[in-house]
Design a protein that fits this description.
By secondary structure, the chain is mainly β. Helix content is 0%, strand content 48%.
């Protein structure tokens, strides 16, 4: 069994920042890429950012590039998403995902490549 637990979401104002965390546990966690997806009300789940394990190569959706930063601590099996300059359109449930494959780059956006998913953490940005 693999468990992913997100934390760090909250209610903030436009322009504020948050750091989301995703802690992974399980006997086979940590060999591949990790990523963040988000889903706003009434919309499909969309890719946000991903990072490979070794080397740590990040990849971002165009909508967040330059504002969000993904990082990981392999020793702690934890991935982070620093979200800066938040906009109301960033409001969504943010989901952590992990893959058994060390994918990176544009191919990282495919949700089908991720084997494990967390339950999500809510980020709400007011104007």
């Amino acid at each position: 069994q693999v468990q992913l637990v997100e934390s760090g979401g909250g209610l903030v104002q436009a322009g504020d920042s948050l750091r989301l965390s995703c802690a992974a546990s399980g006997r086979t966690v940590g060999s591949g890429a990790m990523a963040w997806f988000r889903q706003a009300p009434g919309k499909e789940r969309e890719f946000v950012a991903a990072i490979s394990r070794i080397p740590t190569i990040p990849y971002y959706a165009d909508s967040v590039r330059g504002r969000f930063t993904i990082s990981r601590d392999n020793a702690k099996n934890t991935v982070y998403l620093q979200v800066n300059s938040l906009k109301p359109e960033d409001t969504a449930v943010y989901y952590c995902a992990a893959s058994d494959v060390n994918i990176y780059g544009a191919g990282s956006i495919r949700s089908s490549l991720y084997n494990y998913w967390g339950q999500g953490t809510q980020v709400t940005v007011s104007s």
